[in-house]
Amino acid sequence: MRFISLRVRSCVVVHGYTPDNREVVERVEEGAFAAKVIAIDRIQSVTEQYILVTGPHGRQMYWEYEGGIDAVRQMLTRSGLLLE
After folding, report:
1. Beta strands 3-17; 60-65: pairing state
2. In this structure, are residues 37 and 51 in contact, taking their beta carbons and an 8 Å threshold?
3. Is residue 68 pLDDT above 80, yes or no?
4. What per-residue confidence (pLDDT) applies to 31?
5. Could you tell me the pTM of the whole model?
6. DSSP state letter for 40
7. How sure is the predictor about 70, in pLDDT bands with cuts at 50, 70 and 90?
8. 10 touches 31 (CB < 8 A)
9. CA–CA separation, 17 vs 34, rounded Å?
10. pLDDT score, position 29
11. What are phi and psi of 70, to 5 degrees?
12. CB neighbour list of residue 9: distance below 8 Å, 6 or more residues apart
């Protein structure tokens, strides 16, 4: 298994969907950035501000992260994990 190290904080947790197909969303307003080692297999997408990861029980989580997308792109490229 491969990992990436980032400083992240929770922003949005998607817990699932209502019977009428609306997302059940929890917004996290507080919290400091913390260093995490994240399994690459959990990452769904990365934008300039957020990393979308899968969590337990089918949840999806949007984390804010430090460093920006170019830094993430460079880490993934150096590790041979990014196809350009």
Report:
1. antiparallel
2. no
3. yes
4. 87
5. 0.86
6. G
7. very high
8. yes
9. 29
10. 84
11. -65, -40
12. 28, 31, 32, 33, 34, 63, 64, 65
Record the tokens describing residue 74, joined without a space.
């460079």
For the record, the structure tokens of 41 come out as: 């297999």
Provide the strand spans (E) within the chain.
3-17, 23-27, 34-39, 43-46, 50-54, 60-65
Report the SS3 class of residue 67. coil
Mean pLDDT of 67-74: 94
- What is the per-residue pLDDT across 6-62, written as a single tens digit (0 to 9) for each? 999 999 999 999 999 999 999 998 889 999 999 999 999 999 999 999 998 889 999
Contacting residues for 1 by C-beta, under 8 A, at least 6 apart: 39, 40, 41
Rounded (5°) CA angle 72-44-53: 85
Report the C-alpha gap between 13 and 25 in whole angstroms: 6
